[in-house]
Amino acid sequence: MYFGSVNGLISFNPDKFIQNNYQPPIYITNIQINNQDVSVKKNNSPLETSITFSENIELNNQQSTFSLEFASLSYTAPEMTKYWYKLEGLNENWIPIGKNHKVSFNELPAGDYTFKVKAFNSHGVWSNENSSLKIEVLPPFLSSNLAYAFYAALLILIIFFLLRYYHRYNRDKNNLRIQQLENDKEKEIYQAKIEFFTNIAHEIRTPLTLIKSPLEKLLSLKYNSLEIPKNLGIMERNTSRLLNLVNELLDFRKTEMKHVKLSFVEVNISQLLEETHIRFSQLIKDKNIHFDITKKEKDIYAFVDEEATRKILSNLFSNAIKYCEYHVQVQLEKTEDHFRIIVQNDGEKIPLELKQRIFEPFFRVPGETKKSGTGIGLSLAHSLAELHHGKLFINSNNLSLNEFVLQIPLHQDNEFRAFKNQPKEVKESDEIIRKFDNDSALILVAEDNPELADFILNELSEKYNVIVASNGKEAWKAICTYEVDIVISDVMMPFKSGIELCKEIKEDIDKSHIPVILLTAKSALNAKIEGLESGADAYISKPFSLNHLQVQISNLLQNRKSIIGHYNSSPLAHLKSLSLATSDKSFISKLDQKIDDNLKDTNLNVEMLARHMNMSRSTLYRKIKDISNLSPNELINESRLKKAAYLLKTSNLKIYEISEKVGFKSQSSFGRSFQKHFSMTPSEFIDQDHNI
Question: Taking the domain 147-254, which CATH number applies?
Fold first, then answer.
């Protein structure tokens, strides 16, 4: 074939053309991610080396849109080369792209892929080697294996907690059902008890009535002896009191059945609060808690049913003391129309959701079942408050303490002014003093029950001088005024208890020698131990036999006389043998030491001894007289003689030397005194064959 050109003709023979059989290699020359060229080892770059030499790359889920460029390394008509590619994992067929040597992928799903490419040159020869690149597209974190592991663990935990909740729900449901059954059972038992006690009360009331009627008849008769009507009066009053208690039990049953009617009379609420506090004072002391009463006004009067109000206060006090930790606070305040009593305690807080249920009959706060109680006290108090047209509730605004608030109107619709109940004053009464017989012992009776005090006074007055005091404060005043030989005290008294009075006596050096007998209605062993630990010489439980009390008094007085008699009659008896009470030992020891140190002084007398003892002359005289039945000068003289008797028996000193050692001015004076006291001369005492 010939072709013309400006330079002449060009000829060639097509049959003589050489076919291009070269199979050029194919290389990936570039990668773009999100239309941006990717450099090696840059931030977020998947390339560790050039893309041409990379066998695999790893792309995150933000790099799933990318393009690849590739080229066949043939310089013979490269523009005539055609390309095919496939992406294994996405499609398995070769896709022709003609002469284009770039392919793009948009948002590839997460997974593993293999990119392959091949070429077809201008002479129809396929490339011998296909270029390939492994591509891994990572999923987002929420679709990663770690996320799926977290989902699995979370699912397992959810299933676990659901099963646990289901188990606890069933357990609590069963426990609640059991508790409900127990409550129902307790109600049945309680109703049975109430029925039992009601029936017993009915049975008791009949014989009490039969006892009371003959007593009243006997009281109407005249007797020659004054003791008979007095004793019959005591029996009648206590029979009436027992009958009233039985009637109160029946009234309680009526309260439960909503059949009770209240009598509203004017009552001193302040005084009623104080009386309730006194009744609980021993329990407060036993629990060692701090109990405060705050009254904004001295006396607050209101028209209430006194017995019902007393029951409300008793339940509130008992509840507060039972469940408190260390402190109970009671406040009494008055508004224009109401009075309010606030009782706070620092016990475990009552949940707010239970503030209404706490007043339901037989309901008890969960977790408090170990403490004794029936669960009816607050319910009864709540019902009685409502019968007063008032309310009893828990103040939920106090977040730190349990606070019960009793609010009752000052006036009621039906008031009984004509039969107003006069408040029983707890006051300091004057002691009752009988005419003293100087030859009889003086006994102080401290008892707040006037009937019992009068009974003891009448029975003991036949043999002893008796003083009666109605409370501990008056009793202490009487002890300081009179030379009391024995104190008989009730444990529970206003102003000062018997235990406190006993401790005060035993801790006072001037009065510690006085024997104390405690009377109490508490027969528990720990109560007796507490009484004896306070220094009491005897502890008698109520009800007691009068003969028992009289024998106890006689024994204490006789023991004192025996000890004093032994000391006076025995030449070698030591002064310390006079100490009966532990509290007297320190006084006796000090007195003995001071006398012994100054025995040689012929001028030793009561004034000098009082200075050495740091006491007044009158106090020392009274103390020595009470302990030894001797005056101080007589005691000094006896101490000289007993010291002389001891030296005569244990030393080789001459009689005149001993008389000088014990403070006698002459041997003749010593001999006369020794013979007068011991009915023998010093020489005869030495010659005795036996020891005294």
Answer: 1.10.287
Whether 297 contacts 271, CB under 8 Å: no
Query: Alpha helix locations (H) across 324-362?
Result: none
- Helices and strands counted in the chain (H then E): 18, 24
Give yes or no on whether 19-140 and 570-687 have one common fold. no
Kindly report the backbone phi and psi dihedral angles of residue 334, in degrees, each rounded to the nearest multiple of 5, phi listed first.
-135, 140
E-assigned strand segments in 482-637 = 486-490, 516-520, 538-541
How is 254-307 classified by DSSP, letter by letter?
HHHTT-----BEEEEHHHHHHHHHHHTHHHHHHHT-EEEEEESSS--EEEE-HH
Contact status, residue 127 vs residue 119, Cβ threshold 8 Å:
yes
Query: What's the Rg (C-alpha) of the chain?
Result: 55
| Residue 339 · residue 266 · CB < 8 Å | no
Query: Are the C-beta atoms of residues 20 and 122 closer than 8 Å to each other?
Result: yes
Percentages helix, strand, coil for the chain, rounded to the nearest 5? 45, 20, 35
Record the pTM.
0.39
Question: Mean pLDDT of residues grouped by 10 in the chain (692 residues)?
Answer: 81 70 80 87 84 87 88 74 88 88 89 88 70 87 85 94 93 91 82 71 70 76 78 79 67 59 85 84 80 86 88 87 88 91 88 78 60 62 86 87 92 68 42 55 87 83 87 88 88 83 82 83 61 79 76 84 57 48 64 77 79 78 71 78 78 80 79 78 70 44
CATH topology of domain 19-140: Immunoglobulin-like (2.60.40)
Question: Any residues with CB less than 8 A from the CB of 365 and at least 6 apart, and which?
Answer: 350, 351, 354, 358
CATH number of 570-687: 3.50.20.20, 1.10.10.60, 1.10.10.10, 3.40.50.2300? Answer: 1.10.10.60
- The 10 Å Cβ neighbour count of residue 500 is 18
Domain 432-561: state its class. alpha beta
The structural domains of the chain, with segments of one domain joined by +, span 19-140, 147-254, 261-409, 432-561, 570-687
Domain at 261-409: CATH code: 3.30.565.10
